[in-house]
Design goal:
alpha/beta
Length: about 325
């Protein structure tokens, strides 16, 4: 009568063996190394994306001012890559629509932005960019910063007639911030945001989905030393939020290798539980006393059979 097979040990009984614990420690070190390499690849992915964004911003700054119409049409979506691009446009200021944007700081001092509508007369396209619209578009222009909600006349005075404006583009803001603003007797109306969606209800005609931060104008407005609004520095261009896909997938590969190392140890433990190499049917029959020379042995080698259509041979 064949010997009874040994009792199957539990997973944890096998896993606690010194040999298995040593293998686990080695594989965990390998998994830790793979995880660290994956984190390094992610850091590299964002670093390369940031460097690409910074290089793009530097190239845009060095390119000089472009005609507004070559980059952005009125009432069209604002591409993110236009943030910080320098543009030139010609138009007429409409001081009656002027607003002060509350809660904006300059050099750590909280104050107000002077926001003035510019009715565009030339964006470099000869009017083609708004030919299908209801009329000439209006571009929100931040002419500078003032400390008081009731600045002097010099800060609110705009150059008369047609003005050539140069400035940095910024995307329109949202109107998500809640809460009303108080009346501003003695000064322009107040607003919280530079939001084209809200300004369209205040200013007539088509509007751009971005605004310009003034750097210069011809004729020039009153300088800050004479009571005019203080010009803002160029908007800071930060690195992009994108990720370099090549390094990202390298990181995934390293993490998969780390998981594979842990899975390998689990497989080793389970194999040890099963007693190492799995026995074939012939091995089990031989252990039971069959020498395998008979028909049964042949059928074990070919469990399907050698007859026609897979049937056993007679």
């Amino acid at each position: 009568m064949p010997d009874a097979p040994p009792a199957r040990r539990s997973f944890w009984a096998v896993a606690r063996q010194p040999r298995m614990l040593m293998i686990l420690a080695l594989l965990l070190l390998a998994a830790l190394a793979c995880g660290r390499l994956g984190v390094w690849q992610i850091d590299r992915a964002y670093e390369r994306a940031n460097l690409a964004a910074e290089q793009e911003a530097a190239e845009a700054a060095a390119a000089g001012a472009s005609d507004l119409g070559d980059l952005l049409a009125p009432q069209s979506a604002f591409p993110g890559e236009l943030v910080g691009r320098e543009v030139a446009v010609t138009g007429v200021y409409e001081p009656d629509g002027q607003l002060l944007v509350a809660g904006r700081a300059l050099d750590g001092v909280e104050g107000y932005l002077v926001l003035t509508p510019l009715r565009v007369s030339d964006d470099g396209t000869g009017g083609a960019s708004w030919a299908d619209l209801s009329g000439a578009p209006v571009l929100p222009v931040v002419r500078g910063w003032v400390e008081s909600p009731t600045p002097g006349a010099e800060a609110l005075e705009v150059p008369g007639g047609e003005v050539g404006v140069t400035g940095w583009l910024q995307a329109s803001e949202s109107t998500a911030r809640a809460g009303g603003l108080p009346e501003n007797p003695g000064g322009p109306p107040l607003t919280r945001d530079i939001a084209s969606s809200a300004l369209a209800n205040t200013w007539d005609g088509p509007i751009y989905t971005g605004y310009a931060v003034l750097t210069s104008s011809d004729p020039a407005q009153a300088p800050a030393s004479d009571g005019g609004p203080a010009l803002l520095p160029r908007p800071e261009l930060e690195g992009g939020d994108d990720v370099d896909l090549q390094n990202f997938f390298y990181a995934l590969q390293w993490w998969v290798f780390g998981l594979f190392a842990v899975a390998l140890w689990v497989r080793l433990v389970r194999d040890e539980m099963a007693g190492g190499r799995r026995e074939s049917r012939r091995d089990r029959r031989r252990r039971g006393g069959d020498d395998g020379d008979g028909d049964d042995g042949a059928r074990d080698d070919d469990p399907i059979g050698t007859g026609i259509a897979g049937l056993p041979a007679p």
